[in-house]
Amino acid sequence: MPSIFTKIINGDIPCYKITEDEHNFAFLDINPNAKGHTLCVPKKEVNKIMDLDEASYLKLMAFSRKVGKAIESAVPCKRVGMSVIGLEVPHVHVHLIPLHSMKNATFQHKEKLDPAEFEKIAEQIRSQLK
Ligand code: AMP
Question: Which of 89, 93, 109, 119 to mutate to test the pocket of ligand 1 (most atoms within 8 A of CB)?
């Protein structure tokens, strides 16, 4: 059974897409710690990040850096934090989180956005990748 992220990558479930390349896919987290919270996901479905082969891991990190720099340009914040958890979805993903304070890094405080706000922030990040 494909993971929810594989379904998103295949277009079977909608998302607020940021970008993709041959190996990785980025979209907004639907329950964000902060506005602009983005997930970077390898297209290859692997559960745990330490089980990714080294080449895929390095490509994921390079892709995440590129997306993270776009978030930093698009979203006012102190910096973009990077975190890998994976306790909810067993398909490797890097959380890129605009940080205003430590609160945004805890996964205990969530931001409520409506669809128009999700689409607006996604477009702002996408425009920094052009
Ligand atoms: P974790 O596996 O603990 O790193 O958390 C999984 C993350 O995926 C959470 O932050 C969820 O809000 C996010 N998530 C789950 N389903 C979706 C979805 N359909 N679209 C976007 N983000 C999702």
Answer: 89
Pocket test for ligand 1, best of 88, 104, 110, 121 (most atoms within 8 A of CB): 88
Q: What are phi and psi of 117, to 5 degrees?
A: -70, -40
Name beta bridge partners: 79.
99
Domains and CATH numbers, the chain: 4-128 (3.30.428.10)
Task: Write the pLDDT tens digit of every residue in 29-65.
Answer: 999 999 999 999 999 999 999 999 999 999 999 999 9
Q: pLDDT tens for residues 64-110?
A: 999 999 999 999 999 999 999 999 999 999 999 999 999 999 999 99
